[in-house]
Design brief:
The structure holds two protein chains of two kinds. In chain A, 70% of the residues lie in helices and 2% in strands. Chain A has a two-stranded antiparallel ribbon with strand order 2-3. Among the domains of chain A are: 68-345, MetI-like fold, CATH 1.10.3720.10; 607-644, no CATH class. Chain A is mostly helical. In chain A, a hairpin with a 5-residue loop joins strand 2 and strand 3 (371-378). By secondary structure, chain B is of the alpha+beta class. Chain B has helices spanning 40-48, 90-100, 105-118, 123-126, 135-147, 165-182, 193-199, 217-222, 227-232, 241-246, and strands spanning 2-11, 14-24, 29-33, 51-52, 55-60, 63-64, 75-78, 153-157, 185-190, 202-207, 210-215, 236-238, 255-258, 263-266, 279-290, 294-301, 304-311, 323-328, 334-335. In chain B, helix 2 (90-100) crosses helix 3 and helix 2 (90-100) packs parallel to helix 5 (135-147). Classes of the chains: A mainly alpha, B alpha+beta. At the A-B interface, strand 1, helix 21, helix 22 and helix 26 of A face strand 1, strand 4, strand 7 and helix 2 of B.
């Protein structure tokens, strides 16, 4: 007989829950991951020729004969160059704010981190607002350089520029943590041994950042490969926009569009699998861990060379301007009337709240220059049912999906840790990481095609029909966000001392009580952080919204795109611009608020919370003392405050 | 009180415990001592119920508890890391076990206050988060949490190992005092021989899943039953062939002598070292380590190097190169 962990003891209700959870997990995994994707894979080889005979390799032939390789090559070109530019900018912003002593680093950091709340389709349209043919900057440049091409901000270079700055969020989060984890004693030791500052940076600091940088590089490459909103809105023929176009096409328009879309999705998947395998192999080789018993906090390095110091400051603030200008412009113009927005010139006499709270139908200019009123088109974001409806839908769907992903992953990771040395634990983890192997677009495309039929295991419903599409979007959002949640929440579970669980069990707590009262409160800050990051990413995501776009599935990204389209018509519907600015500001406020609550408030441990409460109490007593309130009254209020907290 | 009979624990092909037998008396401070991986923590986890043994019986107060669930054994545990719940206040940590038992709120409050007083935790400290306490205070919280449910015995798994040396000595004394006050049967796991010798009523010395010796600190130190115990507890000299033959000791055995059992005096002084059965050897001081209370010498004598500890009287202090005479009493030699 083997020695057994007591965790293996069988409890009736617990066992039932495990069986129920297991069945549900298998159902979700097969039903919402395996079957739809398999269907996509098989559709490639189920093509028929003109006579209706099976021609399994028709689409493969079409691939080599047609223009499909162009999309693949374009995506690859974007991904490769993006790796370079994003790493250059990403490493720069982290070094400038965390490693070098640059004046105003706190402000700079805030600017560089704006992509955390201002991302996705909102960011792309924000850049368009500045740089496209009618953009503020374009107009300003044309005043001084009339020969500049008005259409300069389009195609590959525009996509590169936009994505370079949009994709540094992960650097701002993860590379920043990595650099903060460096033991300063190693820097001092290198200096003491005669290394010059640049040598220290390259030989001591950078090698410790390499594992993080490698992960970020792979993620950036995949992001570039699977780019969607920027190529679509800025006009660049890459894989993802083509998949969405083909998915919406019919055989009447062109040859086997569905199978071609499926083939492109599979090509993306193959690249993703290859890259993740490389990443996995690299991660298994191990990381450079600090061996210090007493880590010293990193001290910022002053750039000794005055010229280099000035250049670094200039570079830092140029980047800051690039990051901040679209944000500031969007905020400022959200308070301007349509005339000011149309001419893209700030008019201090045109300050208005109409883009937020206006409830009147908006006016527009005809081609003859007359101003007319368009009925049923409300100016203000909060009064325009279509806009606020899109925001509401995105908010609800993103919140449900982000929460669902967290719940599934927390329960599953708890199970994985309980069975970490057993096959079943590893199988559950592999299932949760499965969507990582597949590009988002493949999952969405598979969902759209597969569930656009009556599927038996969803009670014979067509999930792409009517309001059912919302459920489909939630499922797609959830599936796509599972791998990220697994990696982050698993790391949080590693931080739980196993003795805590033993202690709780020893004190009489059941497995469920131990989970709810001991383990969950410990991982909760990380879970909330994952929720916030996933929510913010989904709130303004474009890929899935475009794939599932329908009258019942018009999310915020689609609303913003439709507003852009309306603006595109010359002289028409200028108020859509203002509403778009206002809605973007509103989204930024919500995203910022959520990040603040999660990272600012939620990340405080109990000690910090109690210390803040104590400070508040002392301050309150001091104020009471100054105001001459009686001691009894102050104590009474004090008790009430403590009770509330 | 606690009886382990023929306890065997296997993990796959590896046998962690080979049929060990232990009896712990009521109110006793009993220590499991041994190097890492010797099976002492496995034994403790078998008693507490975290491990189901592959064979043997665990009984408490005469009742077989081998397969009784952890929470029903009525055993308190103080963990190596203290395992205090970081998301709860000190009061909530101590009250956790009582809340699980669904005790009335006023009873919980009263019990927590009483135990807190006993372990010297103030009302102010009870309202703090555990992260706001010092290492020593955290240890007291862990003890209070383990004791508040009134367990029959308390098990401690290296509770001092995370602390610095000075605090460890202070808390060791406090721990002993508390155990005496509560009069609770205590099983203590450590790899620190000094801790075991100073705290315990009895010690079980573990090695590779076996118990080598069970005895009082004096028994395991001065009358080590096995070569392993002699080597593991305290510092010791192994006697080489010259001394063995000079003293007519059995040559088919190995012979050891504790450092403080070797007498030393300056060569040629002819002073206070008594004769009797003792053998004397001339030697030369190789090195000296000054500890204040005592001085440790490394001496070259009879073809081997011997370590000797002498009380620091401030007068008889030898320097490297000084000739000395060593005195070894056969009664002090442990042979295996």
């Amino acid at each position: 007989m083997q020695a057994q962990s007591i965790g293996k003891q069988k409890y009736g209700i617990g066992k039932l829950w495990t069986i129920f959870g297991g069945i549900l997990f298998v159902y979700l995994f097969l039903g919402f991951m395996v079957f739809p994707c398999l269907d996509t894979l098989t559709s490639i080889f189920s093509t028929k020729d003109a006579a209706g005979n099976a021609d399994p390799f028709a689409v493969i032939r079409f691939f080599f004969a047609g223009n499909m390789p162009t999309f693949v090559l374009n995506s690859l070109k974007l991904a490769v160059l993006l790796v370079i530019t994003v790493n250059v900018v990403g490493i720069s912003i982290v070094l400038l704010t965390e490693y070098f002593d640059i004046r105003g680093a706190k402000i700079l950091r805030l600017g560089y981190m704006t992509t955390l709340i201002y991302s996705g389709v909102a960011l792309v349209t924000g850049y368009q607002f500045l740089y496209d043919k009618d953009g503020i900057l374009t107009n300003w440049l044309l005043q001084y350089f009339p020969n500049i091409d008005r259409q300069w901000f389009s195609g590959f270079s525009a996509v590169m520029f936009t994505m370079t700055f949009a994709c540094t969020s992960n650097h701002a989060l993860f590379l920043r943590n990595a650099i903060r984890g460096i033991d300063y004693n190693t820097v001092e030791a290198a200096r003491n041994l005669g290394a010059k500052p640049f040598k220290v940076l390259m030989k001591v600091v950078m090698p410790t950042l390499l594992p993080t940088l490698f992960s970020l590089t792979v993620m950036t490459f995949i992001t570039g490969l699977c780019a969607m909103s920027a190529p679509t809105l800025l006009g660049y023929n890459s894989i993802n926009p083509e998949i969405v176009r083909l998915a919406g096409s019919t055989t009447a328009d062109e040859a086997f569009p569905q199978a071609r879309a499926a083939l492109l999705s599979i090509i993306l998947a193959m690249f993703t699998i290859l890259l993740l395998s490389v990443l996995n192999h690299y991660e298994r080789k191990g990381h450079y861990l600090s061996v210090s018993k007493t880590k010293a906090k990193l001290v910022k390095q002053k750039i000794q060379n005055p010229v280099a110091n000035v250049l670094a400051h200039i570079y830092a603030y140029v980047l800051f301007i690039i990051y901040m200008t679209p944000v500031v412009m969007i905020i400022v113009f959200s308070f301007q009337n349509w005339q000011a927005i149309r001419s893209k010139t700030l008019d201090f006499s045109s300050w208005t709240l109409i883009n937020y709270f206006g409830s009147q139908d908006y006016s527009y200019t005809t081609s003859r220059g007359k101003t007319k009123i368009r009925p049923d088109a409300i100016s203000g974001v909060f009064a325009n049912e279509k806009t606020i409806g899109g925001i509401r839908l995105s908010f609800v769907l993103s919140a449900i999906a982000a929460a669902l992903a967290c719940v599934i992953v927390v329960v599953a990771v708890n199970y994985i840790f309980k069975h970490k040395n057993k096959k079943r634990g590893k199988v559950v983890e592999a299932c949760l990481l499965f969507p990582w192997l597949l590009p988002t677009i493949l999952i969405c495309y598979s969902f759209r095609i597969f569930f656009n039929n009556e599927v038996w295991y969803v009670f014979g419903n067509n999930l792409y029909y009517g309001e059912n599409v919302r459920f489909l979007i939630i499922m797609a959002y959830t599936v796509v966000k599972l791998p990220f949640a697994v990696r982050m929440i698993k790391a949080a579970f590693y931080a739980i001392d196993e003795e805590l669980e033993d202690a709780a069990r020893n004190l009489g707590a059941s497995a469920l009580v131990t989970f709810l009262r001991v383990k969950l409160p410990i991982v909760l800050p990380s879970v909330l952080a994952v929720f916030a990051l996933n929510f913010n990413a989904l709130f303004t995501e474009y890929d899935m919204s475009a794939t599932f776009h329908s009258s019942h599935g018009t999310s915020y990204a689609m609303v913003i795109q439709s507003m852009c389209n309306e603006e595109g018509r010359d002289g028409m519907n200028m108020n859509a611009s203002g509403r778009r600015c206002a809605s973007t500001v509103f989204i930024m406020v919500i995203s910022g608020l959520i990040l603040y609550l999660v990272y600012g408030v939620g990340a405080r441990d109990l000690g910090e919370r109690l210390a803040i409460r104590e400070r508040r109490r002392k301050r309150f007593k001091a104020v009471c003392g100054k105001l001459g309130l009686s001691r009894a009254a102050a104590e009474e209020t004090d008790k009430a405050e403590a009770h509330i907290e | 009180m606690i009886d382990l009979k023929d306890i065997t624990v296997r993990f796959g092909d590896f046998t962690a415990l080979h049929g060990i037998n232990v009896h712990v008396n009521e109110g006793e401070f009993f220590t499991f001592l041994g190097p890492s991986g010797c099976g002492k923590t496995t034994t403790l986890r078998t008693i507490t119920g975290f491990i189901n043994p592959s064979g043997g019986v665990v009984s408490m107060q005469g009742k077989d508890i081998t397969h009784v669930p952890i929470e029903k054994r009525n055993i308190g545990i103080v963990f190596q890391s203290y395992a205090l719940f970081p998301t709860m206040t000190v009061r909530d940590n101590i009250a956790f076990g009582l809340k699980i038992r669904k005790m009335p709120k006023d009873v919980i409050q009263q019990k927590v206050d009483t135990i807190a007083k006993k372990v010297d935790l103030s009302e102010e400290q009870l309202a703090k988060a555990v992260s706001q306490l010092s290492g020593g205070q955290q240890q007291r919280v862990a003890i209070a949490r383990a004791l508040v449910t009134e367990p029959a015995i308390i098990c401690m798994d290296e509770p001092l190992s995370n602390l610095d040396a000075k605090l460890r000595v202070n808390l060791r004394n406090e721990l002993k005092k508390m155990q005496r006050e509560f009069g609770i049967t205590t099983i203590y796991v450590t790899h620190d021989q000094e801790e075991a010798l100073t705290l315990s009523d009895r010690i079980a010395v573990f090695n590779k899943g076996y118990i080598e010796q069970i005895g009082t600190p004096n028994e395991v130190y001065n009358h080590s039953q096995t070569e392993f115990v002699a080597n593991f507890i305290g510092d010791i000299n192994k006697l080489q062939s010259d001394i063995v033959s000079a003293m007519n000791l059995a040559e088919d055995k190995v012979h050891y002598i504790r450092l403080e059992r070797i007498g030393v005096r300056a060569a040629g002084r002819g002073d206070s070292v008594p004769a009797g059965n003792a053998a004397t050897f001339t030697g030369t001081i190789e090195s000296q380590e000054y500890y204040g209370l005592y001085i440790k010498y490394t001496i070259r004598a009879a073809g081997q190097t011997l370590k000797v500890v002498e009380k620091n009287d401030g007068i008889n202090i030898y320097e490297p190169g000084d000739p000395v005479i060593l005195r070894i009493d056969p009664a002090d030699i442990m042979s295996y």
